[in-house]
Specification:
CATH architecture of the largest domain: 2-Layer Sandwich
CATH class of the largest domain: Alpha Beta
Strand content: 15-25%
Oligomer: single chain
Order of helices and strands: HHHEHEEHE
Helix content: 25-40%
């Protein structure tokens, strides 16, 4: 992921088969190499070589299991806009270092607008969220202001990236 110290990388050249592989893996990351080869119409060794190349190149960052939040006791999701008191590089780096060590913080985005950062946070309930805010987030030395948006319900939540089609690449 791009950070202030790690600028975005140039897009990797991919052909239609690479895009088919990525779309298939995003939909079902546990499929076997043989199943993947059959879907994209190549031999298993050819597909494995392409997948390994995309893993080495950082296109494929990893493989994960997507969990059902309710079943693991996480029922409170919030987005928090964070404004820092200071905006220099040291303050930003210090905040990023501290926030990335909090397990409840699922995402941290450096943004434009009134706030400096947007966090996505998961906790078991509102009291747990309140504990996080009162004793950990507001305790960070550079945090000046927080604005919380509580998720009431989620209509769409995707993990798959929209891979460009041949005519859009």
């Amino acid at each position: 992921m791009p950070t202030p110290a790690n600028p975005p990388k140039a897009p990797v050249r991919m052909d239609a088969t690479d895009r088919k592989i990525l779309l298939s893996l995003q939909a079902e990351g546990r499929m076997t190499n043989a199943e993947l080869a059959q879907r994209v119409g190549l031999s298993p060794p050819s597909v494995l070589e392409r997948v390994k190349k995309m893993e080495r190149g950082g296109v494929i960052r990893g493989y994960v299991a997507l969990l059902e939040p309710d079943l693991v006791g996480l029922r409170c999701f919030t987005y928090v806009e964070v404004s820092l008191a200071r905006h220099g590089n040291e303050a930003v780096q210090r905040f990023v270092h501290q926030i990335t060590r909090m397990d409840e913080v699922l995402e941290c985005h450096h943004i434009t607008g009134e706030a400096d950062f947007l966090l996505k946070i998961a906790t078991r309930d509102i009291p747990a969220y309140e504990e996080l805010i009162l004793h950990r987030l507001t305790a960070l030395p550079d945090v000046q202001n927080l604005k919380t948006l509580v998720v009431l319900s989620t209509m769409k939540q995707e993990t798959a990236l929209p891979i460009a089609k041949d005519d859009e690449a």
